[in-house]
Amino acid sequence: NTRVLLAERPVNRAPVESDFRVERGAMPEPGEGEVLIRNLFLSLDPYMRGRMSAAKSYAEPVAIGGVMAGEAVGRVVSSRHPGCQPGDLVLAHTGWQEYAAVPGERVTKVDPDLAQPSHYLGVLGMPGMTAYCALLYLGEPQPGQTVLVSAASGAVGQVVGQIAKIRGCRVVGVAGSDEKVAYVRDELGFDAALNYKKPDGSPKDFEALSQEIAALCPDGINIYFDNVGGLVHDAALANIAQFGRIIVCGTISVYNELEKQDIGRRWMRQLLVKRARMEGFLVFDHAHRTEEFRQTMAAWLREGRIVFREDVAEGIEAAPRAFIGMLSGANRGKQLVRTGQE
Ligand code: NDP
């Protein structure tokens, strides 16, 4: 059983491969009430950067020497829990490893007829549900409104934009490369998109970005779906419409500065002048909407109204590199790792 452990905490810097240790361990033995799972796909998500840090957050950090936290889809190999049978396809918090023994009551069975297994980690899983609940329940989008979404081509962003289109909104995406901009505009049907980086890869300055957003959102932004914080957040807030809403879903642009104080100058005057509302979002608060989300999203997928791009790295050993790449924008869609073949 190959697994990935946390070797070192990156403090106020980007993670590097030596912060992880890939190790071959013994095959886990399921105890009473547990199931042994062979993982097929492991999900790599930005929140895991937070788990590498000891800074206070909504969840406990991974211990040094502990298996990196993460969700996976896999097959039950053997079961000591009455609710699971060998061969069942399940979703579980197994961590970054090929096999895991997990309590049966914490395993969710997934229906392969509804969607391909990997989708349960993306469009039909936590990122898709984040997009769905945050946009619809916090954003309350109305037809004709303008929605701006950052990290627009990523796991959450690509779904946000497509749901906003279904709801009759005008959708503008912000992403970090011309290729990603073309993807959301030409393949996902966003009305417009822009690259927040210059051709040399460095971020544009605030004025330039703010003006570009203004040109693409001439009536202002009614809903800003913020996946990134920082520069793009400031430039979006400068263009917020009256009674606009800012959904703070992620702040990935500062995930390498978690040990610093989250204080400083903010555009609060802009909130006041526009009577805008800014609200933090956490997907766990919406657990009661899981079934509604799954059924609605599965129908949209079946009808071809939502499409979803995945970026699959091969083999558990590739997880640290793929994770580091995803944090800096190397991913093309939802980042996954294939940890086993069917
Ligand atoms: P993505 O698939 O979007 O991957 C992360 C992307 O972030 C990168 O591809 C990159 O895209 C972008 N990015 C990285 N650094 C910066 C930067 N400095 N400025 C702007 N963009 C940057 O990840 P997810 O869709 O899984 O997650 C998106 C966000 O949503 C994250 O912040 C995550 O923490 C958050 N999230 C929050 C949840 C909640 O419950 N609150 C649940 C799930 C996700 P690009 O090339 O465009 O820069």
From TrEMBL:
Domain of life: Bacteria
SUPFAM superfamilies in alphabetical order: GroES-like, NAD(P)-binding Rossmann-fold domains
Pfam families associated with the record: ADH_N_2 (PF16884), ADH_zinc_N (PF00107)
Residue ranges constituting the Enoyl reductase (ER) domain according to the UniProt record: 17-337
GO molecular function: oxidoreductase activity, acting on the CH-CH group of donors, NAD or NADP as acceptor
UniProt entry keywords in alphabetical sequence: Oxidoreductase
InterPro entries xref list: ADH-like_C, ADH_N_2, ER, GroES-like_sf, MDR_fam, NAD(P)-bd_dom_sf
Cited PANTHER family: PROSTAGLANDIN REDUCTASE, PROSTAGLANDIN REDUCTASE 1
Protein name per Swiss-Prot or TrEMBL: NADP-dependent oxidoreductase
Protein species of origin: Skermanella aerolata
